[in-house]
Specification:
With 293 residues, the protein is an alpha/beta fold. 25% of the residues lie in helices and 25% in strands. The protein is globular. The structure holds guanosine-5'-diphosphate, magnesium ion and zinc ion (ZN).
Protein backbone atom coordinates (compact mmCIF):
# COMPACT_ATOMS: atom_id res chain seq x y z
CA UNK A 1 0.00 0.00 0.00
CA UNK A 2 1.25 3.49 -0.80
CA UNK A 3 0.65 6.61 1.23
CA UNK A 4 1.26 10.25 0.46
CA UNK A 5 3.24 12.51 2.76
CA UNK A 6 5.45 15.55 2.75
CA UNK A 7 9.24 15.64 3.02
CA UNK A 8 10.12 18.06 5.79
CA UNK A 9 13.85 17.47 6.25
CA UNK A 10 16.87 15.50 5.12
CA UNK A 11 19.02 14.23 7.96
CA UNK A 12 21.45 11.31 8.45
CA UNK A 13 20.79 10.13 4.88
CA UNK A 14 17.06 9.85 5.51
CA UNK A 15 14.24 11.93 4.11
CA UNK A 16 11.75 12.54 6.91
CA UNK A 17 8.21 12.31 5.61
CA UNK A 18 5.30 13.74 7.57
CA UNK A 19 2.04 11.80 7.40
CA UNK A 20 -0.45 13.00 9.98
CA UNK A 21 1.14 12.61 13.40
CA UNK A 22 3.92 10.39 12.12
CA UNK A 23 7.40 11.35 10.97
CA UNK A 24 8.75 8.50 8.86
CA UNK A 25 12.43 8.21 7.93
CA UNK A 26 12.59 7.17 4.28
CA UNK A 27 15.14 6.09 1.73
CA UNK A 28 14.77 6.66 -1.94
CA UNK A 29 13.80 3.82 -4.28
CA UNK A 30 16.93 2.98 -6.28
CA UNK A 31 15.24 3.61 -9.61
CA UNK A 32 14.44 7.20 -8.66
CA UNK A 33 18.06 7.92 -7.82
CA UNK A 34 19.08 7.15 -11.37
CA UNK A 35 16.31 9.20 -12.95
CA UNK A 36 18.22 12.27 -14.11
CA UNK A 37 15.03 14.15 -14.87
CA UNK A 38 14.11 14.19 -11.23
CA UNK A 39 17.54 15.78 -10.80
CA UNK A 40 18.69 15.80 -7.21
CA UNK A 41 15.55 13.73 -6.79
CA UNK A 42 13.61 14.59 -3.69
CA UNK A 43 13.70 17.97 -2.03
CA UNK A 44 12.23 19.38 1.12
CA UNK A 45 8.60 20.38 0.59
CA UNK A 46 7.92 17.60 -1.92
CA UNK A 47 4.81 15.48 -1.69
CA UNK A 48 5.88 11.87 -2.11
CA UNK A 49 4.35 8.41 -2.31
CA UNK A 50 5.90 6.04 0.18
CA UNK A 51 5.60 2.40 1.07
CA UNK A 52 6.37 1.15 4.56
CA UNK A 53 8.97 -1.33 5.68
CA UNK A 54 8.67 -3.60 8.70
CA UNK A 55 11.21 -1.57 10.69
CA UNK A 56 8.98 1.58 10.70
CA UNK A 57 11.04 3.27 8.03
CA UNK A 58 9.79 3.79 4.49
CA UNK A 59 10.73 3.95 0.84
CA UNK A 60 9.94 6.88 -1.41
CA UNK A 61 8.39 5.34 -4.51
CA UNK A 62 7.37 8.44 -6.40
CA UNK A 63 7.47 12.24 -6.28
CA UNK A 64 4.41 14.28 -7.10
CA UNK A 65 4.80 17.12 -9.57
CA UNK A 66 5.85 20.40 -8.02
CA UNK A 67 3.92 23.64 -8.04
CA UNK A 68 7.13 25.63 -7.72
CA UNK A 69 10.70 25.23 -6.50
CA UNK A 70 12.87 27.80 -4.80
CA UNK A 71 16.57 27.49 -5.39
CA UNK A 72 19.38 27.75 -2.87
CA UNK A 73 18.29 26.26 -0.66
CA UNK A 74 15.91 24.06 -2.57
CA UNK A 75 12.35 24.01 -1.27
CA UNK A 76 9.39 22.75 -3.28
CA UNK A 77 5.74 23.79 -3.17
CA UNK A 78 6.22 27.06 -1.33
CA UNK A 79 3.06 29.04 -0.55
CA UNK A 80 4.60 32.37 0.27
CA UNK A 81 7.86 34.16 0.74
CA UNK A 82 8.38 36.85 3.34
CA UNK A 83 11.10 39.15 2.08
CA UNK A 84 12.58 40.53 5.25
CA UNK A 85 14.52 43.78 5.49
CA UNK A 86 15.55 45.99 8.36
CA UNK A 87 14.45 49.59 8.75
CA UNK A 88 18.12 50.19 9.59
CA UNK A 89 21.26 48.13 10.31
CA UNK A 90 21.80 46.99 7.64
CA UNK A 91 20.65 49.88 5.43
CA UNK A 92 18.55 48.79 2.48
CA UNK A 93 19.43 49.78 -1.07
CA UNK A 94 16.43 49.92 -3.46
CA UNK A 95 18.31 47.79 -5.98
CA UNK A 96 18.76 45.00 -3.44
CA UNK A 97 15.10 45.19 -2.49
CA UNK A 98 14.07 44.90 -6.12
CA UNK A 99 16.50 42.08 -6.80
CA UNK A 100 14.77 40.05 -4.09
CA UNK A 101 11.36 41.02 -5.39
CA UNK A 102 11.98 39.96 -8.97
CA UNK A 103 13.63 36.68 -7.96
CA UNK A 104 10.57 35.95 -5.85
CA UNK A 105 8.27 36.87 -8.75
CA UNK A 106 10.23 34.55 -11.03
CA UNK A 107 9.72 31.63 -8.66
CA UNK A 108 5.96 31.60 -9.23
CA UNK A 109 5.04 31.82 -5.56
CA UNK A 110 1.45 32.45 -4.61
CA UNK A 111 2.20 35.28 -2.26
CA UNK A 112 5.05 37.74 -1.78
CA UNK A 113 5.08 39.83 1.38
CA UNK A 114 7.57 42.49 2.43
CA UNK A 115 8.41 42.49 6.12
CA UNK A 116 10.20 45.48 7.60
CA UNK A 117 11.91 44.44 10.83
CA UNK A 118 13.67 46.45 13.57
CA UNK A 119 11.04 49.20 13.66
CA UNK A 120 12.23 49.81 17.22
CA UNK A 121 15.38 51.41 15.76
CA UNK A 122 13.74 54.31 13.99
CA UNK A 123 10.69 56.52 14.17
CA UNK A 124 10.48 56.55 10.36
CA UNK A 125 7.21 54.68 10.32
CA UNK A 126 6.53 54.93 6.60
CA UNK A 127 9.64 53.07 5.45
CA UNK A 128 8.86 51.43 2.07
CA UNK A 129 5.35 52.90 1.99
CA UNK A 130 5.87 53.46 -1.77
CA UNK A 131 5.73 49.68 -2.16
CA UNK A 132 2.38 49.26 -0.41
CA UNK A 133 0.46 49.59 -3.67
CA UNK A 134 2.46 46.62 -5.04
CA UNK A 135 2.93 44.30 -2.07
CA UNK A 136 1.64 43.75 1.41
CA UNK A 137 4.10 45.42 3.81
CA UNK A 138 4.33 44.27 7.43
CA UNK A 139 6.20 46.33 10.01
CA UNK A 140 7.55 44.40 12.97
CA UNK A 141 10.17 44.21 15.66
CA UNK A 142 11.58 40.92 16.88
CA UNK A 143 12.82 42.81 19.95
CA UNK A 144 9.63 44.55 21.12
CA UNK A 145 7.16 42.11 19.57
CA UNK A 146 5.38 44.84 17.62
CA UNK A 147 3.46 43.53 14.63
CA UNK A 148 4.04 39.88 15.46
CA UNK A 149 0.36 39.00 15.89
CA UNK A 150 -0.38 39.74 12.26
CA UNK A 151 2.76 37.89 11.19
CA UNK A 152 1.79 34.83 13.24
CA UNK A 153 -1.61 34.70 11.65
CA UNK A 154 -0.06 34.69 8.17
CA UNK A 155 2.38 31.95 9.15
CA UNK A 156 -0.20 29.60 10.61
CA UNK A 157 -0.91 27.81 7.34
CA UNK A 158 1.06 26.79 4.27
CA UNK A 159 4.82 26.86 3.72
CA UNK A 160 6.43 30.23 4.36
CA UNK A 161 10.02 30.93 3.41
CA UNK A 162 11.87 33.79 5.07
CA UNK A 163 14.33 35.35 2.67
CA UNK A 164 16.31 38.56 2.73
CA UNK A 165 19.80 39.85 3.34
CA UNK A 166 21.90 38.57 6.21
CA UNK A 167 21.54 40.45 9.48
CA UNK A 168 18.01 41.78 8.98
CA UNK A 169 16.64 39.53 11.73
CA UNK A 170 15.03 36.56 9.97
CA UNK A 171 16.14 34.03 12.58
CA UNK A 172 15.28 36.46 15.38
CA UNK A 173 11.76 36.84 14.01
CA UNK A 174 11.23 33.11 13.79
CA UNK A 175 12.45 32.71 17.36
CA UNK A 176 10.14 35.51 18.49
CA UNK A 177 7.22 33.80 16.80
CA UNK A 178 8.02 30.36 18.18
CA UNK A 179 10.41 30.06 21.11
CA UNK A 180 10.95 26.34 20.63
CA UNK A 181 12.73 26.87 17.32
CA UNK A 182 15.90 28.21 19.01
CA UNK A 183 17.53 29.25 15.76
CA UNK A 184 21.01 30.74 15.82
CA UNK A 185 21.00 34.51 15.78
CA UNK A 186 23.75 36.84 14.62
CA UNK A 187 25.74 37.34 11.48
CA UNK A 188 28.70 35.28 12.59
CA UNK A 189 27.18 31.85 12.15
CA UNK A 190 26.13 32.58 8.59
CA UNK A 191 29.52 34.01 7.74
CA UNK A 192 31.26 30.89 8.98
CA UNK A 193 28.90 28.75 6.95
CA UNK A 194 29.49 30.74 3.81
CA UNK A 195 33.24 30.76 4.33
CA UNK A 196 33.25 26.99 4.40
CA UNK A 197 31.03 26.81 1.33
CA UNK A 198 28.64 24.71 3.29
CA UNK A 199 25.42 24.15 1.44
CA UNK A 200 22.63 24.98 3.77
CA UNK A 201 20.00 22.34 3.66
CA UNK A 202 16.56 23.68 4.23
CA UNK A 203 14.21 22.21 6.77
CA UNK A 204 10.49 22.75 7.12
CA UNK A 205 9.92 23.86 10.71
CA UNK A 206 6.46 23.02 11.96
CA UNK A 207 4.36 25.97 13.07
CA UNK A 208 0.62 25.81 13.66
CA UNK A 209 -0.85 24.11 10.62
CA UNK A 210 1.99 25.42 8.50
CA UNK A 211 5.73 25.28 8.04
CA UNK A 212 8.47 27.89 8.24
CA UNK A 213 11.80 27.92 6.44
CA UNK A 214 14.66 30.01 7.75
CA UNK A 215 17.22 30.72 5.05
CA UNK A 216 19.56 33.37 3.78
CA UNK A 217 17.28 33.13 0.76
CA UNK A 218 18.14 33.33 -2.89
CA UNK A 219 20.43 36.31 -2.38
CA UNK A 220 23.39 34.53 -3.91
CA UNK A 221 21.51 33.43 -7.00
CA UNK A 222 22.32 35.46 -10.05
CA UNK A 223 19.61 36.56 -12.40
CA UNK A 224 20.56 34.44 -15.39
CA UNK A 225 20.79 31.35 -13.22
CA UNK A 226 17.27 32.07 -12.03
CA UNK A 227 16.08 32.01 -15.63
CA UNK A 228 15.78 35.74 -16.17
CA UNK A 229 16.69 37.24 -19.53
CA UNK A 230 16.24 40.53 -21.35
CA UNK A 231 12.89 39.41 -22.71
CA UNK A 232 11.26 38.20 -19.52
CA UNK A 233 12.70 40.49 -16.84
CA UNK A 234 9.90 43.02 -17.41
CA UNK A 235 7.27 40.43 -16.43
CA UNK A 236 8.68 40.38 -12.89
CA UNK A 237 7.80 44.09 -12.55
CA UNK A 238 4.12 43.45 -12.16
CA UNK A 239 2.92 47.05 -12.41
CA UNK A 240 4.49 47.50 -15.86
CA UNK A 241 1.78 45.41 -17.50
CA UNK A 242 -0.80 48.11 -16.79
CA UNK A 243 1.06 50.52 -19.06
CA UNK A 244 2.76 48.27 -21.64
CA UNK A 245 -0.39 48.28 -23.76
CA UNK A 246 0.50 51.84 -24.75
CA UNK A 247 3.93 50.88 -26.12
CA UNK A 248 4.35 51.34 -29.87
CA UNK A 249 6.19 48.01 -30.08
CA UNK A 250 3.63 46.32 -27.87
CA UNK A 251 4.76 42.86 -26.76
CA UNK A 252 8.40 43.25 -27.80
CA UNK A 253 9.09 46.61 -26.14
CA UNK A 254 11.77 46.24 -23.46
CA UNK A 255 10.83 49.70 -22.10
CA UNK A 256 14.43 50.86 -22.39
CA UNK A 257 15.59 52.36 -25.72
CA UNK A 258 12.34 52.14 -27.72
CA UNK A 259 10.36 55.26 -28.74
CA UNK A 260 6.72 55.76 -27.69
CA UNK A 261 6.98 53.55 -24.64
CA UNK A 262 3.97 53.38 -22.34
CA UNK A 263 6.07 52.35 -19.36
CA UNK A 264 8.49 55.25 -19.73
CA UNK A 265 5.54 57.63 -20.09
CA UNK A 266 4.06 56.23 -16.88
CA UNK A 267 7.35 56.81 -15.06
CA UNK A 268 7.34 60.44 -16.26
CA UNK A 269 3.75 60.90 -15.06
CA UNK A 270 4.62 59.37 -11.70
CA UNK A 271 2.35 56.36 -12.21
CA UNK A 272 5.32 54.00 -11.89
CA UNK A 273 7.82 54.50 -9.08
CA UNK A 274 11.02 55.86 -10.63
CA UNK A 275 13.10 53.77 -8.23
CA UNK A 276 11.47 50.62 -9.66
CA UNK A 277 12.10 51.68 -13.23
CA UNK A 278 15.74 52.53 -12.49
CA UNK A 279 16.20 49.14 -10.81
CA UNK A 280 14.72 47.56 -13.93
CA UNK A 281 17.19 49.31 -16.23
CA UNK A 282 20.15 48.41 -14.01
CA UNK A 283 19.15 44.74 -13.85
CA UNK A 284 18.51 44.66 -17.60
CA UNK A 285 22.10 45.83 -18.10
CA UNK A 286 23.37 43.31 -15.57
CA UNK A 287 21.66 40.47 -17.42
CA UNK A 288 23.28 41.61 -20.66
CA UNK A 289 26.69 41.59 -18.99
CA UNK A 290 26.13 38.16 -17.38
CA UNK A 291 25.21 36.64 -20.73
CA UNK A 292 28.49 37.81 -22.25
CA UNK A 293 30.59 36.54 -19.36
N1 LIG B 1 17.08 46.38 17.25
C1 LIG B 1 16.70 45.22 16.73
N2 LIG B 1 17.64 44.29 16.46
C2 LIG B 1 17.25 43.11 15.94
C3 LIG B 1 15.88 42.85 15.67
N3 LIG B 1 15.80 41.61 15.13
C4 LIG B 1 17.06 41.13 15.08
N4 LIG B 1 17.94 42.01 15.57
C5 LIG B 1 19.42 41.84 15.67
O1 LIG B 1 19.94 41.79 14.34
C6 LIG B 1 21.05 40.88 14.28
C7 LIG B 1 20.85 39.85 13.18
O2 LIG B 1 19.77 39.01 13.53
P1 LIG B 1 19.53 37.58 12.85
O3 LIG B 1 18.21 37.08 13.35
O4 LIG B 1 20.70 36.70 13.01
O5 LIG B 1 19.40 38.01 11.30
P2 LIG B 1 19.37 37.06 10.02
O6 LIG B 1 20.76 37.03 9.47
O7 LIG B 1 18.43 37.76 9.05
O8 LIG B 1 18.84 35.74 10.43
C8 LIG B 1 21.18 40.28 15.66
O9 LIG B 1 22.19 40.97 16.34
C9 LIG B 1 19.82 40.52 16.29
O10 LIG B 1 19.88 40.62 17.69
C10 LIG B 1 14.89 43.87 15.97
O11 LIG B 1 13.68 43.75 15.75
N5 LIG B 1 15.38 45.04 16.48
MG1 LIG C 1 19.65 33.81 10.28
ZN1 LIG D 1 7.64 50.04 -23.57
Amino acid sequence: MREIGRVIKFYNSFFFVRIGDELIPCKLRGLLKRDKKIGSAVCVGDFVEISRLKDKSGVIENIQSRRNVLIRPTVANVDRVILTFAIDAPKLHPLLLNRFLILAEKSALDEIIICVNKIDLSATENFLSEYESLYKVLRVSAVTGDGLDELKEILSSGVTVFAGPSGVGKSSLLNAVEKNLSLKVGKVSEKILRGKHTTRVAELLEYGNGYLVDTPGFSAVDLVEAGLDKNNLRHSFKEFVNFAGACKFLNVCTHSHEPDCGVKAAVERGDILRERYEAYLTLLDEIGAEKIR
